[in-house]
Design a protein that fits this description.
The chain has helices at 52-59, 87-92, 111-117, 120-126, 131-136, 138-157, 173-185, 203-218, 230-236, 254-258, 261-268, 275-286, and strands at residues 12-23, 26-37, 41-45, 67-73, 79-81, 96-98, 191-195, 222-227, 239-244, 247-252. It is α/β, with parallel strands linked by helices and 287 residues long. It folds into two domains: 1-95 and 189-287, Rossmann fold; 107-188, no CATH class. The strands form two sheets. Strands 6-7-8-3-9-10 form a six-stranded mixed β-sheet, with helices on both faces. The chain has a four-stranded antiparallel β-sheet with strand order 2-1-4-5, covered by helices on one side. Helix 3 (111-117) crosses helix 6 (138-157) and helix 6 (138-157) runs antiparallel to helix 7. It starts with 11 loop residues before the first strand and ends with a helix. 37% of the residues are buried. The model has no long low-confidence stretch (mean pLDDT 85). The structure holds adenosine-5'-triphosphate. Adenosine-5'-triphosphate binds next to strand 2 and helix 1. Residues 14-270 form the ABC transporter domain. Belongs to the ABC transporter superfamily. Pfam families: ABC_tran (PF00005), BCA_ABC_TP_C (PF12399). This is ABC transporter ATP-binding protein.
């Protein structure tokens, strides 16, 4: 399906097929298909209103699509049809985690507490859901120690160790965003979905974010991010899918997509056949 030299030999982690989403009379997504490969950073981009958030919400269970199939393939080979799962099972069973465009942390809790709360479900399971279990069972103690180790690990990766005991709400914006990602990683997802992770970050914070995302990829977690700023994704993505008016207009490597006249036209807001003329005019104007 993909063009532009995408590595077809890699294992597919997410397959979206013929996805459509209608809001009243508006067809926000229209017969949209793409695949994300395991171990890669896949970016879904497009101009404002193209339908990125809607696709993202369908994948992460916030919307039930009008039509289409979304298959998540776990490392074990187990497959889950995400459009049929309630959102909490998308995290728990299918191992898909997400972050939000507007940061959603427990701002009164410390940075470390935010990372421990994320592991609440695993800890409660280890307690056997009993008070006694919480008090004394070795299995709970082991799980609690494991949760602290995991939190420490992600504090370090997100460069937040020094702020571990500070309230999350006191962190600068970029650090809050990294904390949100670290918190999602504590649930051990196989696919991490990020909603405009670079929005509102300054260049230094963007660099720290890119390093964190590359680190996550290096550990084998696949990433799917949505972004409307093309320049942000070009640096870190392995694969870029472009949406316009709810339909796919390009799909391939960052280089392929960047040079695709359809994409240039979409971002410049002109017709395909006017692209060369507009670019020549722009260049003429800057010379
Ligand atoms: N809950 C909703 N009810 C009605 N229309 C919606 C809803 N959500 C999205 N839309 C419409 O669907 C279309 C796609 O919107 P969407 O937010 O998915 O685009 P986007 O690419 O994420 O845009 P942006 O970059 O501005 O966030 C838009 O026309 C939007 O107005």
């Amino acid at each position: 399906m993909a063009s532009g030299n995408i590595d077809m030999t890699k294992d597919t982690i997410l397959k979206v097929e013929h996805l459509s989403m209608k809001f009243g009379g508006l067809m926000a997504i229209n017969d949209f298909s793409f695949e994300a490969k395991r171990g890669e950073i896949t970016a879904l981009i497009g101009p404002n209103g193209a339908g990125k958030t809607t696709v993202f919400n369908c994948i992460t269970g916030f919307y039930k699509p009008t039509m289409g199939m979304i298959t998540m393939r776990r490392r074990t080979g187990e497959e889950h049809l995400l459009e049929r799962l309630p959102d909490f099972e998308i995290t728990k069973k299918a191992k898909v985690a997400r972050t939000f465009q507007n940061i959603r942390l427990f701002s009164g809790l410390t940075v470390l507490e935010n990372l421990l709360v994320a592991q609440h479900n695993a800890l409660m399971k280890a307690s056997g859901y009993t008070f006694l279990g919480l008090l004394g069972m070795p299995v709970y103690k082991k799980a609690a120690a494991g949760a602290i180790d995991k939190a420490k690990y992600w504090l370090d990766k997100a460069d937040l160790t020094e702020r571990a005991d500070d309230p999350a709400g006191d962190l600068p914006y970029g650090a809050q965003r990294r904390l949100e990602i670290a918190r999602a990683m504590c649930t051990e997802p196989e696919l991490l979905c990020l909603d405009e992770p670079a929005a509102g970050l300054n260049p230094k914070e963007s660099l720290a974010l890119n390093n964190l995302l590359r680190g996550i990829r290096a550990e084998g977690t696949s990433l799917l991010l949505i972004e409307h700023d093309m320049s942000v994704v070009m640096e870190i993505s392995d694969h870029v899918v472009v949406l316009e008016y709810g339909q796919k207009i390009s799909d391939g490597t960052p280089d392929h997509v960047k040079n695709d006249p359809k994409v240039i036209a979409a971002y410049l807001g002109v017709e395909d056949d006017e692209v060369e003329e507009v670019i020549a005019e722009e260049l003429g104007g800057t010379l």
